[in-house]
Structure formats: C-alpha cells, structure tokens
Specification:
Elements: H1 2-8, H2 14-22, H3 30-41, E1 54-57, E2 60-63, E3 71-74, E4 77-81, E5 86-88, E6 93-102, E7 105-112, E8 115-125, E9 132-133, E10 138-142, E11 151-159, E12 162-164
Antiparallel strand pairs: 1-4, 2-3, 4-11, 5-10, 6-7, 6-9, 7-8, 8-10, 8-11, 11-12
Helix pairs in contact: 1-2
C-alpha cells in the first residue's frame, strides 16, 4: 500500500510512508465511523453468539486446564453449547473473511467499523466474504469435536488489533 501511494504521489514524505507501513489502525470512512460508534455504544448489550450456552474458558491469563502450574492466555472466550447449535452474528456488519482452518474447522470474521468479531470452530459456514449480516443472523454451524464430543464456539472481539474481553460486551445470560 505504501509503495502504491508513493508511486501515485512521489512527493509523499518518508514519515508519511512509514506511518502507512506501520499503522495498525483502520482508517474509517464517515459511514464506517458510525458503524463503529454504534457497535461501541452497545457494549454490555450484545446478544450471545449462540442461542444458549455457558462460558467454559474465560478471556485473559489463567491456569492451564490440565497443568495447574502452567499459565495460558485466551484472546477470547469459549462457549459450550449443544450439538447442532448455530453461531450467530452479535451485531450488524460485513463478513470480512471466511477462514478454512482445516477441512472440518472454519472461522468467520465480521467487521463492524474498526471492530471485528470472530467466530471460530465452525463445521459449516452459511455466509461469504462481503456479505452484509444482521444481528442474530445465523452464520454457520458450530463444530462438535469427534475426540471430546463437545460443541464449543471460540468467540473473540477486537478493535483494530487489540483483543478485548468479549464477556463484557454480551448481555448477561
């Protein structure tokens, strides 16, 4: 991007080029700023990304579930739910990407201005990159592990590149 900008405007300063190369913030259009502000105004009021479930792994640093002397960091939360459950968008937005982690595991990332919600551990996806989605719209089916028999959605929220605790964004269940 920086090289294209320099070619288009050769008088661009080195500082401006470096800022473009190292920026981790999304430059928002006026419309995207409204979307971002609306998302932020709904902190603590977002619907859960599943119809019913419970948090089985919290955000942040915590003891490893099997090795108590080991600490792990979770960039999101894990929500255990029932077999056959759907993941659903927590807010209006646009599908930024659909990621195929493996043949049986997929993720969906939805953009809400400079906020992103990530829905990981899906067995199937019902949206495509660029699709507009609405609050509570089904975006895919949550995968049930063949090893454990558990159905768990990994859910994350970030603003630009900074992950935040998703639990603080959701309405109490």
């Amino acid at each position: 991007a920086a090289a294209a900008a320099k070619k288009a405007n050769p008088k661009t300063t080195a500082a401006a080029t470096k800022a473009t190369e190292t920026s981790s913030k999304i430059v928002l259009t006026p419309e995207a700023k409204i979307v971002s502000d609306n998302f932020k105004a709904n902190k603590g009021k977002l619907p859960w990304p599943v119809e019913k479930g419970q948090i089985t792994l919290k955000f942040g640093n915590q003891p490893h579930p099997e090795i108590s002397s080991l600490k792990i960091h979770s960039s999101g939360i894990e929500i255990s739910t029932t077999d056959g459950s759907n993941a659903r968008a927590v807010f209006d937005g646009e599908v930024y990407s659909v990621i195929y982690v493996s043949p049986v595991q997929k993720s969906v990332m939805i953009q809400h201005g400079d906020f992103f919600t990530v829905y990981h551990n899906l067995s199937s996806v019902s949206v495509s990159k660029g699709d507009k989605v609405s609050r509570k719209q089904t975006i895919g089916k949550i995968r049930t592990s063949g090893d454990t028999g558990k159905t768990v959605l990994k859910f994350m929220i970030s603003q630009n590149t900074t992950y935040t605790n998703p639990q603080s964004w959701l309405t109490p269940m």
